[in-house]
Amino acid sequence: MVVIVRSLVLGALLAGSVSLDARAQPADDTAASKVQLARRLYDEGLDAVNKSRWSVAYDKFKASYELAPRVLTLFNLAAAQAQTGRVVDATESYRRFLRETADGRYPDLRTDATAQIEALEARTSQLTLDVKQLAASDTILLDQVVFPHAGLREPLPMNPGAHAVTVARDGLTVAQRDFELAPGAAETITLTLPAKVDLQLSPGSPTATPTMPRDTGAPPPPRDDEGGMLSSPWFWTAVVVIAGGAATGGYFLLRDDSDAITIE
Length: 264
Known about the structure:
- With 264 residues, the protein is α+β, with helices and mostly antiparallel strands.
- 33% of the residues lie in helices and 21% in strands.
């Protein structure tokens, strides 16, 4: 895998946003501790990038951004999301970066973010899910996350790769299907539920097991936790991989994080 590295020199950022006079503005110990932890996590993320440990880099940048949401951390988080197979998340992070720098800051990075969004959208799959004979009380799970009935028959942006849909009724699984989405493909998955759920009781056991329809095709390849979708409610996640220029990705900012994480 190839990562394009860009260095930034932003020496004025810290001086312009931080008051170092504790007497003028007393520091909040808790806030200061969170910022220090965010800075450490950011540095650990950069170290992981240098070692091509993309999953670790993603975890570190994500945790750092949650503690101290700075736009340059967000930019690195977007690139890490792209590296670890999160097409929708990366797209949304780059869009957020553009919104938060709409004042014109970091023009080169804004240009790169715009290009990454276009490339990521080309790889985003579209899923339309339909469930026939669905009861109002039935629960739909898409990749183990509750999926609202209102989302049925609507195209949803999805990561390419392996996914699973399950329908439960009264706590029992009545239908399940595994499926694979190709990059950039639009697929419709339809499940038809039984009109009546047949419960089969094992002798001497109080537990009921439903008879349910299930996809009988060959099982999909093992799922990659990093590329799975739905790290946030429903489907708002994303992915793309940087590989020798054949795919897309973005810049990582390899520099001291004091420019990105400051106490305000």
